[in-house]
Amino acid sequence: MNVEKRHKSILEVLERDSYADIATLSRILQVSEMTIRRDLSRMDEQGLLTRVYGGARVIPKRSFELPIEQRTLCQTSSKRRLGRYAASLIQSGEVIALDASSTARAVSEYLDGDITVLTNSITVAGILAENPKVEVILLGGGLRKTSLSLVGFDMIETLHKYHVDKAFLSSKSIDGSHGITDATADEAEAKKAILTSAVEVYFLMDHTKLNTCAFYQVCPIAQIQHLITDSEPGIYEKCASLFSECEKNDVKVQILSEETES
Length: 262
Description:
The structure is a single chain. By secondary structure, the protein is an alpha/beta fold. The protein is 39% helix and 24% strand. The chain contains eleven helices and 15 strands. A seven-stranded parallel sheet has the order 6-5-4-9-12-14-15, sandwiched between helices. It has a three-stranded antiparallel sheet with strand order 1-3-2. Helix 2 packs across helix 3. The radius of gyration is 20 Å and the shape is elongated. The mean pLDDT is 89.
C-alpha cells in the first residue's frame, strides 16, 4: 500500500472512531509501527489530523458552538469547582480579566473583595452588577448573540489601555500539539487580546476539553502560565502528552479533585 492510500485509510479509521492508536493502525494497514508514526507526523504537519501520544485524533471539520445558556448547563459541577478555586487566587486590589466563557461566568459568581474586573461578557457584567465590592469595566465591541460577548477591533483596542494582573479564560479545546483552540475566530481573537494584556494567564479547562482540538488557535501551550482542570479516572494516562508539553514549557498544572477546598 503506497503512502497516499495509507493516509486515506488512516483518515477513514479516524472518521469512524475519532481516535486510533499506532498499534491498531499498524495491524489494520499491515505496516510497521515506525511507518505509522512517520505517516501520523506527516499528516499532523499537513493539518489532516491531530497527533497525540500513542496515536492520533480526528480534527473537527467545522466549528460549532452552543449558545451560552446551553454551555452553562454542561459540566456544571466541574465549572463551579474551577470557578471557586480561581476566585480564591485573586487578591484584593487586583485588576483581573474574564472572557465570555461559561467557566469565566462561574468565576464571577465566587468573587469577593475590592477588585476591578475587565470583561467582554454581558452575562458576567450582569452578575457582577449585583456585587457592590467589584468594579466592572465592560469592554466594548460588536455583539455575538450566541455567546452574549463583545468582540472585534474596538474590544481589542480598549484592552490596550489597561494593565491586567491576572486573566482567567477558558476555551473549547486544548492539546499538546495545537495548544488552546476555540470554535470561532472572533472568540479566539478576543481571548488572544485578553491573555496578551495580563501578567499572569490562567486557563480553566474542565476534563472534557483535554486532548481535543477545535477550529481556531488561541495560543500555543508556551503562552500560558497556568492550566487548571478537574480530575477524572485515568486522567494522567489519557493526557500524558498534554501534561508533558506543559512541563516542557513550565506551565503549572493544577488538577482539582472533588475534595479540593480553597
